[in-house]
Design a protein that fits this description.
The protein is of the alpha/beta class. It folds into 2 domains: 214 residues, Rossmann fold, CATH 3.40.50; 99 residues, 3-Layer(aba) Sandwich (Rossmann fold). 33% of the residues lie in helices and 22% in strands. A hairpin with a 5-residue loop joins strand 10 and strand 11. Helix 5 runs parallel beside helix 6. It comes from Paenibacillus farraposensis. Keywords: Methyltransferase, Transferase. GO terms for molecular function: methyltransferase activity. Pfam families: Methyltransf_13, Methyltransf_14, Methyltransf_23.
């Protein structure tokens, strides 16, 4: 294997958490049916010392993220989540025009735009140039870089230290965790706060969310592992919130360990206790996940085969990375899903990696009137069902694969 030691603590990795066979890069959409593409083993390991779940890193971040297919602003519910976050931070910390907010992996400016509207100074750090250009077109200052200690030191020299340093769903995308967290330590003002949101490993295991595993997600975090990682760099996690986003996420609040302004909240101890009771520090708990997912795979395929044997037409909704993991692991192709649709114009007219299922505009659903719509971004099911409620006109129904395959009418 390529990374033989844990990227958090350096311990040798011996225990497989979940092996999903081979898969292409989940966000590498194919322009032509005849285009060749690479596939890589998709295997995750669990560290016996710090309990970080991590995937083997076969491709560099530069290859995966420099031209990126994911634009955060296409989800209305996610934008609402971000607006609420900004209101929360403004109320909690009373930020003004003198405040510097820095977001790591700022994408298309989906969040910083709301701070900017309130007159707060903002800076985005985003490695994907095509996505960063969209943020810049909104007037959001953006540095096109991968975050780590070099960029943190450079920004500090320019006086760009952060009162609020935030990152949403970026921690999983970082191959060098220690350099990344060390960079946050450098860039954070003495009395500043870090907030990080990321999917919770406990919820992944509890709800069979195996499809959230793909090559660009290098790591999968429990709360106890994150607090350990931050402590290694003299950063203290003083508060935590449990969120519904992405199938169950957590938002941590951290500060310099030497900063006496923030007291550790009861929420920290409560979540650590919850994880301990669940078995997040028991290696045996992790070893049972492979069999659970193999059984789920068989149920999904049996379900789809029975519908197709009845002559039903099944279309997909969405072209998310998680959907590509599910499709490729289960062996789903055009024999099962006739096509899928997505709101992102960047994905329309392409084919899903591996399966070569074509991606169209959502208007295709009205033209073809499928019997079932298979929701691939199941974490956005409420938003998608509302947007596609018109399928009820011809008796259409929705299929959700996670936590188990089922129909929504």
């Amino acid at each position: 294997m390529l990374n033989e030691v844990c990227r958090c603590c350096g311990e040798k990795l011996n225990n497989v958490f979940l092996d999903l066979g081979v898969s292409p890069l989940a966000n590498s959409y194919v322009k032509s049916e005849n285009q060749m593409e690479n596939v890589y083993p998709l295997r995750t390991y669990i560290c016996e010392k710090c309990f970080l779940v991590q995937v083997q890193d076969y491709e560099s971040p530069e290859h995966i993220f420099s031209d990126y297919a994911y634009f955060s602003s296409y989800s209305n519910s996610w934008l609402t989540h971000c607006q609420n976050y900004v209101e929360n931070m403004m109320g909690k910390f009373h930020y003004t025009s003198e405040t510097q907010v820095v977001e790591i992996a700022s994408n298309d400016g989906y969040l910083l735009q709301y701070f900017k509207e309130k007159g707060v100074s903002v800076l985005g750090i985003e490695p994907a140039e095509n996505v960063a250009k969209v943020a810049m077109s909104k007037g959001i200052e953006t540095s096109v870089n991968f975050f780590g200690t070099p960029i943190a030191k450079a920004l500090k020299q320019k006086g760009k230290m952060a009162d609020l340093l935030l990152g949403n769903n970026v921690l999983a995308h970082v191959p060098d965790l220690n350099d990344f967290v060390a960079g946050m330590k450098i860039l954070l003002k003495p009395k500043g706060t870090i907030t990080m949101e990321f999917p919770h490993l406990l919820r992944l295991i509890e709800n069979n969310q195996f499809d959230t595993i793909y090559h660009e997600h290098y790591s999968y975090f429990s709360f106890s592992t994150v607090t350990r990682l931050f402590a290694q760099h003299q950063l203290s996690v003083y508060d935590v919130e449990q969120l519904s986003t992405h199938g169950g996420s957590i938002r941590i609040y951290a500060s310099h360990s030497e900063n006496p302004c923030f007291l550790t909240q009861a929420s920290v101890h409560e979540l650590l206790d919850k994880e301990a009771k669940f078995g997040m520090k028991n290696i045996e708990m992790y070893r049972g996940f492979q069999e659970k997912i193999e059984q789920l795979k068989r149920r999904i395929m049996k379900f789809l085969i029975e519908l197709k044997d009845q002559g039903k037409v099944i279309a997909g909704y969405g072209a998310p990375a998680k959907g590509n993991t599910l499709i490729n692991y289960c062996g789903i192709d055009c024999d099962y899903l006739d096509f899928t649709v997505d709101r992102s114009q960047y994905k329309q007219g392409t084919f899903l990696p591996g399966s070569r299922i074509p991606v169209y505009s959502p208007e295709k659903l009205k033209l073809t009137q499928p019997d079932y719509v298979f929701i691939l971004p199941w974490n956005l099911k409420d938003e998608i069902i509302e947007q596609t409620s018109f399928i009820r006109e011809w008796g259409g129904k929705w299929i959700l694969p996670i936590p188990d395959i089922h129909i929504v009418e």
